[in-house]
Queue: 2 jobs
Job 1
Amino acid sequence: MTDDDDGAAVFLIEARELQSAIERNLLDLSEAPGDRALIDALFRDIHTLKGSGAMFGHVDLAHFLHGFETAFEALRAPGRTASDALINVALRACDQITALLDDPAAARAGNASLIESLDAALGGGDAASGPHPASAQATPAVAPAEDGWRISFSLGPTALGLGVNVPALLGELKDLAPDAVRIACETGALPGLDALDPACPPFVWTVEIAADLDPARIDEVFLFLRDDLVLEVTSLAEAAAPESVAETPQQTVASAEPRPSELPPADVPAEPAPATASRQRERSTMRVATERLDEIMDRVGELVIAESRLHDLSMALQSPALMAVAEDIRRLTSGMRETTMSIRMLPIGNLFSRFRRLVHDLSDQLAKPIDFVTAGGETELDKTVIELLNDPLVHILRNAADHGIEDGGARAATGKPRQGTITLSATHAGAEVHIRIHDDGRGLDDGQLRAKAIERGLLPANSQVTGPELYRLIFEPGFSTAPAVTELSGRGVGMDVVRSVVQGLRGQIDVDSEPGHGTTVTLRLPLTLAITDGLLVEVGGERYSIPVAAVEECVELPPDLALGAGRSNFLNIRGDLVPFLRLADVFETPGLRPDFQKVVIVAGSHGRIGLVVDRIVANAQTVIKQLSCIHAGLKAFSGATILGDGTVALILDVGHLIALGTAIEDRARKRKGAA
Amino acid sequence: MQAVTLTLSDEIFAFPTRILHEILEPVPVTRVPRAGSFATGLINVRGTVVPLTDLRVAFGMTSRPPDEHTRMLVLDVPVAGAETTVAVIADRVLDVTELDDAAVGEIPEVGMRWPPEFLSGIARTDQGFVIVPDLARIYAAALSEDSADFSFEKDPSSCV
């Protein structure tokens, strides 16, 4: 059994998935307390987890789940519904599963009290009426024997198909008394190869344990197989002369299980065990370590670069044969790129369901009834983006629940339903995904925000800014309008985290609010982090890439503005004044500018700006490489990319440049005000 | 330790070969605007974008234009707590030799032309004195300088 460790790792992954499924179903159940299908699903998951937990040696977990299951049994009675109190305890029990998976030794202590709370939450009757089921059920009706036990068992027809691991079982028995166990396998009933069903071998295992042992411990080994097992436990003293054990040559545990590879395939019976077959059908998916995906992505990135080099070369050489191959490779590469990116895409729904628990707990903690609605869970995003979104969304949701939603009384007074609603939704919008968090609470208070901002020196004392421009300030570090710091929020740290993560993802945040009707925070994120389309521009012989998604249009720089210095830094685009930056100045590029410079107009959620460049080179696929920490302080660049000719080009950070543009506008406005 | 020796402005420096990835003939360098003179550019090392740094700046030496001996050494250096791949310009790469750890002596208190905090030792060899730089310190200092001097945030209006 060389892959035992792998098996254990897979178990842990699956266990965590089952745990979150249990949590999800519990939360669903809190909304539909009498839903039979949900209760059944819960039982199925708990039971599966119990079984596989026991199989992989998580004894504490299995015991706990057994208790969980037994306590929950009462819920199956017709007409029973799950109370809020029960759901809350069950959710705690669900946390305990995680704790037991992480560190069984440390978490074990909590088991008993949780089971008791579960019993109590289910009406107490069961808890009072007798010994705990987990221990009651176990003891076989055999008197303790001084000199040991003889255990003889054979597996039911579906046991192997369901994953019973005979060597592990035998190992467990052996561990009961390592020096005093004899194991034998009766192969008498074994048919010829042509009749043998490898999924259901007719072996009878006989295990003799020559030690004084509590029979309950033997029974524990078989605890999870009882339905699918013929088991006979007799004391050695009672047993007849152990002739078969003594005379049968002992077989080693490892080789005892027949392996399919040892059998000629043609002789395998036509009907495989149904359980095995259906399992194989379900397994049309495959788990892959995320690092391997990242590796593939890196390789594809390099392939894209190499491909563009080949393309350049074929254009330069003008050889038809080479061009045809280059064209083929281009097509294959772009297909490969798309497939690879789609592998990395995950529905955001998994993340959303995590927050149901958060909002449920928040609602409890704050004693505000809150309904949590999600939409667009099927929207797909790069997995890295999804992972990084967790923290920001936690902060925004906490804020919405703590500051946004009023308590029931206040809501009723303003004619709103007592129950507040937080909506979390995701939609695709071009090359972006928009994630919207809306609460129907009191909304942001312009006056209070402004006062706070002026107090902190973020706004001049006579400032009259309103709307989104004002709301943007809530993302400043340490900015909080909460009158008191609560356990949940008010320290002004959270929104700062939100901003830095979203910026790190090359995304943007919009905040909108309507007093009395609630607040909407929109995170606008690029679909993927790894590859984007870039507009390649040239300034003084140096090339830079501008994300195409942000480019609005390209215009010629009017000759009267060409010389620049001292003149207005605004461009008239169809009646709108757009500020512009001369990249050659910003980047201190040496040399003279050409006669006809171009302006690339880029836009973001907070405005737009023109970037004056010497020349627009081409559209190019850009594989984004992060800058090392040595250059991380340079905010004007979001990364670098490698061009077709193998040189490196910097990628401009549009958001930062637009912020510079806003600064220009502010300055011009101030100057105008002063004049 | 096994070390690669090289010259920078006529002084001999040594890096442990343990941190050395490869030695490159000069490749095209992309200038990083406003990044200062220490980490001036980026180069493409087999599909990875690597910052190119100039230790001559850290040691206040005069730079010289690249010639046929100029090389770029790709190294792993701990920067801000994480192993970072960087490239370093060398005027000339000399040799790979064994430096006796005992020969890497104390740094003399006086009579030093170089900032002592940037050295982890000086070894005496038959080629003369060999400087073993403290790369982690040098890069940490470059980082802090970076945020002070080269930031676009400082005064956006000065950029236009």
Note: The first strand of chain B starts at residue 2 and ends at 8.
Job 2
Amino acid sequence: MYRDAILKKFDPRLDNILFILHELQDNNPQHYLANADIEKCADYLNIPYSYVHGVVTFYSMFSLKPRGRYIIRLCDSPPCHLMGSESLLDYLKKKLKVDVGKTTADGVFTLEITSCLGICGVAPALMMNEEMIGNLTPERVDTVLEERRQTS
Amino acid sequence: MNAIKAQINHMEVEVQEGTTILDAAKKVGFTIPTLCHHADLKPQGSCGICVVEVEGFPAMKRACMTEMVNGWKIHTNSARVRAVRKTLLELILSNHEMDCPICIKNNACELQRLAATLGMTTLKYPQNFQKKKIDNTSVAIVRNPNKCILCGRCVQVCTEIQTVNALALSMRGFNTVITDAFDAGLGNSVCVNCGQCIVYCPVGALYEKSCVDKVWEVINDPGKHVVVQEAPAVRATLGEEFGMEPGSLVSGKMHATLRRMRFDAVFDTNFAADLTILEEGTEIVDRVKNGGKLPVITSCSPGWIKFMETFYPHLSEYVSTAKSPQQMFGALSKTYYSEIKGIPPEKIVSVSVMPCTAKKFECNRPEMNSSRYQDVDYVLTTREIARMMKEAGIDLKEMPDEPADDPMGEYSGAATIFGVTGGVMEAALRSAYFLITGKELEDLDILPVRGMEGVKEAEIDVNGLKLKVAVAHGLGNARKILDKVSTQLKNEGKSEYHIIEIMACPGGCVGGGGQPWGSNMARRARRGETLLKEDKSLPYRRSHENPSIKAIYEKYLEQPNSKKAHHLLHTHYYKRSKVDGKVILDT
Amino acid sequence: MNIVRNHVLISIDAGTLMSGARAVEDALVKEIVKQGLDKEVSVLETGSIGITGRGVILVVYPEGIYYADVTPDDVPELVEEHLLKGRPLTRLILTETPKRTIITKEKTGLLKEQPRIVLKNCGFIDPENIDEYIAAGGYEGIAKVLQTMTSEDVVAEIKSSGLLGRGGAGFPTGMKWDFAIKTPGDEKFVICNADEGEPGTFKDRLILEGDPHKLIEGMLIAGYAIHGTRGFVYIRGEYSLSIERIEKAILDARAYGLLGKNILESNFSFDIVVMKGAGAYVCGEETALIESLEGKRGHPRNKPPFPINAGLWGKPTLVNNVETLANISEIIRNGAEWYKGYGTEKCSGTKVFTILGHVATPGLVETEMGTTLKDIIFEYGGGIKNGKTFKGALVGGAAGAFLGPDMLNVKMDFVNLKEYSAALGSGAILVMNEDTDMVDMLKSVLHFFKHESCGHCVPCRLGTARLVELIDDIAASKAKKEDIDQLLEITRVMKDSSFCPLGQSVTLPVSSALKYFKNEFMSRVTS
């Protein structure tokens, strides 16, 4: 039902597809686009399911797999790379015991990498859901993860 | 239109405005190599093989999609151009499963041909790609993503020409793949099995699911009585597989070859096509005369039927209940033929040779068992039967002309034109005229429904009764007419049309998904002409004149649309899900 | 209206928010009330002042004192000392970047000061308050245009200003507008390209967050000039604060009659909507952006036709970058001649650079076109962090070029850098110190391209993949000398045959890295 409410906010025009997909994903409790989301969106816009699938998989902010409560998107573009994002990625993988694209066993965190987030002044940086976090060090990562684990 | 004057490889060239570099170069004798380009499709420029140098531009231009500009100096064969092409080809090959000798497309592969054209003899880049899973979920079509070069032709055909949208590009960059909507496999998608993706695939990434081995097995099994039928359109294309000119008619050679392959009986689908006309024709006449649902929409194209069930289920009651010729034949092979010959149906294996991949799906539909057995056991495409013939060491071209066997081998000209767009309509009108008026139609060539125009319309005067008919081929064209009909039905409660013929494939069955490699619209048209020529050459040109048809009604079926005929020769339709193409409720 | 003694500006942008700007703001407001200063001191939100990595930033006026790394715990002391007793709290004062004091060129004649045109209001006004923008001279440009100029006059003015597009390619903006005005069409669109994705670039974000009305005004003037009917701001999906701010600004402008029908009672009608991307670098390419805006996968289109002839929904479409559009109102208000007073002969005006990597004070600087790399790094960026030496810089983002130490004196502008086979691009300057492994940096660049290639064309889809294989081998000392040749060969082929600028530009980082740091590469391979 909540899906219909989302759709109603937008005119059924193809150029609204990214807005619709963003909202469907943001409101999906598992932060991803389920088949039901794709179907809803396609039916609403009167376009083929395969088309929506094609659009969803093109953009890196969308996921077809259920994700954790917090999606960690670590930047690995050159500015963050220069400031040590690669070793941070290793650290995160070890700490969370997951590979890139995977969700922790407790369902709290999903680890992803992303291209430049535009906050390079505080590289290395990551985005956790809507929040940007910079000047990362292993210690800071520990603190951030701990805080989130507490609240979840 | 202005004339454009330019230079290609130092040769002066003058072309009309809007001409591409590719076509302009051809005009002065230079063939620019291409890979993703196809004459029937919009250029996409994905492969980059056709790049040429234009003086004054830092980057090269794609000949397939760049229009000529006055004064340009173009080089299609410079050292730089050749080097770029080779590197691009090498990149493609490094990411392409190269098992050429055992590839379905061996000797017919456009990539292979390109490598030869560019004189590639060595490779620098290692083969380095992750094997992806082959999609085997469909009963008709196999997709091997490891061979896919992402030219995008299949997607373009599936979305723009067929408007089925089973296939789409998915993912991004190096991870780009072509998939169905939920990555569940074509067998679990809206794919209607038309096989046009196969026709347009330049490499061996798409092909029919073969049953060659199973058919050899039953031929070699002395306990089985194997009967074979061949669709109308196969006789106009099979010769191509044996090096004959496109458009060669090989009906007799085809029968002779099949006989030498040791099929126990060589029949002809054309017989069943004549039967279809009587069944469908009677239904049409009944519906026209007695205020039944109109228009009557033809039902012999199984790609179209699944398309209708998925996208236009509200029109299912307008579709003729007559089975397709293949399925009528199948049901009769295990009943009528079984009884005359005294062969128990469980011993009979019914094989069909079809221009079509959707026929593989059709014969597997659970309701196609009126004989209490699966009516048609195996469907071979034109390509598969050619492979078998070659394997058997028989050269079709050298064969004599032989007729098919009785009692299901005789056919009229009306049957043979089933294989080309407009043919079913023409055949139906020839008999409907007779059934309505009791008189024979004099001029049998109903020209307005012929030709490669996507949607054709005509009004036929049947003794004062004006029959409005429409013919569409290619599912995108079908949509145009179906949308119009749907709107008319919705708004006015009736449609202006009485009969509509729909063929899933562009050109009709001559352009089917199971036809020899290298179909394009020009070739489809030539094949169609061949069938129209055979029609003219045959002693009977109306289905109801076929003596074998008269015989089967006398001996077995009683009369068209009889109870028995209904049981064996008619069917019903379902509504299908747009998610996975599966049946959702019986209509 | 109250006469306020002190204004405290708190910088609210994506960077300061992550450092807890909201908590500091709350503490500040509470403390001011507690000290009974709420009639005398006003707290104002503003955008970024261009300093990043220094936590929460406050500026106290009229003294113009900058505080950095402010935490809620500091607030009581700061309020008591500075606002109550008038004694600046020295321990928090930002000292490292004296050159960030913003003084216009005319006033001082000092070259090293930042002449701010684009960022004029950033960090000074509340971006969420349209009145503050208007008070700072905002919307005077559109008013002037509507009252005194024809469309042709506007195009002529922009042409004469010499403004080059700030998206990266440096195409003359006036010329683009001229094409647009000459293209017939009853409907024309203006798209602001805010899909800022070039690694190391965040200038557009700071403009969107800090001065959104400036962008709206620029789009209005562009719309007027080309007879446009509608405007679109395409923002990357990750920039949530930018989206919020520009959306609010559009609502406010509409309420003031600055957007919509008959703007300022003229015959000109124009409105703007915001579109949100979803994570695809290639959508920064204008035709891919248009595809994405139409609701498709972001594959670039073949050119011609160019967007100016057939763009969004096939209609004539002008696509300009955020920074380009942010220059427009100032050019109109002050005139082309004034604008040409900044920058070089061939590249007029200023450029917003982002300085990052191993510099003392990473951040944003607006300076004249033609400023040397050395000045930007050492004067504005505070030099190399921790006393290390400069080794090289990646200029212009991933699609830019590496420059070695002998290039420190190069003048940074579109034309001059081209002469050195480099490119100004987005104006990102990623500074690398002596310890940097340049092979590793190129590896990162190439991985970026592989990840962001749209996949449409063979040269880019498979070229980037092959490049990654090669650079991974080189970085792991598993490669042969020929592999380096192959690296270059592939990028040349990509330059010649890629469908769009993404693939064509990969040659820049590769050839430049090998030009300036060849030895490092050679030491990793066997012959």
Note: The interface with chain C takes residues 13-19, 21-22, 45, 54-55, 58-62, 76-79, 81-83, 114-123, 127, 130-135 of chain A (CB under 8 Å).
